[in-house]
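This section describes the prediction task in plain terms. A model, or a person checking by hand, is given the sequence of a single protein chain and must write out its three-dimensional structure as a string of tokens. No templates, partner chains or ligands are provided. The sample shown here is typical of the held-out split.
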Amino acid sequence: MKPHLLRITTIPLSLKILLSGQMEYMHHHGFLVSTASATHPQIELEYDSEIRHYPIPMVRRIALWRDIICLLMLIRLMLKLRPDIVHTHTPKAGLLGMLAARFTGVPVRIHTVGGLPFMTTTGRRRQLLIAMEKLTYWGAQHVWPNSASMIAYMREERLCPERKLGMIAGGSTNGIDLSVFSRGQVSEERLQALRQSFAYDATATWVVAIGRVVKDKGITELVAAFEALQPAFPQLRLLLAGPIEEERAEEMLPLDTLAHIRDNPAIQHLPWVEDVAACLCLANVLVHASHREGFPNVPLQAGAMGCPIVCSAIPGNVDIVSHEVTGLTYPVGDTVALTAALGRVLEHPAEAQAMALQLRQSVEQQFDRRVIHGALLERYRALVGF
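The expected answer:
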């Protein structure tokens, strides 16, 4: 009988993008696979017909009564499915999914840590978020941070018992599909379709940021750095590709930053980019200014595309980008340092491109998706004796 694997994320975007290809891979290698997440009217999950998806109306913010309802729904789902493995990703899905799995006696309970929200908070909220993380780890048998620097941070902070900690391969949640993220695979038709979706200028130098447009992604510092460099680089343009946060007040951008995004004609905003590879082809430099990460996909994708990178020196980012070897890093939240690093890339594009080439070679050697999927499959099989 096939072992049953249930994967849970808070929102469907994580299943579609963060875990792209994993469900089909596990299904084709002998597992019965189900997924659960909230639904979204613009996001459709396209699986093989035998992979079932179950809607659970979770939200990222703390919402006590809704969270309790979702916990009960997950308990009911697990009692119905009787999965052999429950594997959760993202903080809210991890908390509710691991509690439900422990309460229902799921034999194998795994949570992947892709970032720690408390790292950018203070006071009582920080203590609450730490308590929620520890409760998640209480429910889990296996806690897998997705980068070496993240697992080191968790050990230093004593967040989780050592016996539960582990990591898949060299890190990363899903690796990188090098057959997709390769400049040679991006057609002129795809590039033209993307150009037509915003005010593209072929003569401009494009700084690109991909991801949610929120404070934790360093967008405030990026916009300030970009505008500081505009006088010296009049052809400079900024593309922000991702949704602006409108749900969680603590993540919303300051009103003045939103005004700059709206009023500066050199700044373009796309709420959604389906073709990330094409977007990175159009970029002269990717800036990933995030305040916290686990193992971020976007710098990995940029590395595979040979796109120069400037990123914050935080756990996760530094597992991908080595300063002045494969890109430039700067102290997180430091607008002056970000401005200097971005200015260096703009002034010395050949140097930046040489570092990008080094990063492409590193990604090929360490983070090929086939390696990550294979290592995860082996771990699953060992845990269920299959």
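For orientation: The chain is about 40% helix and 15% strand.
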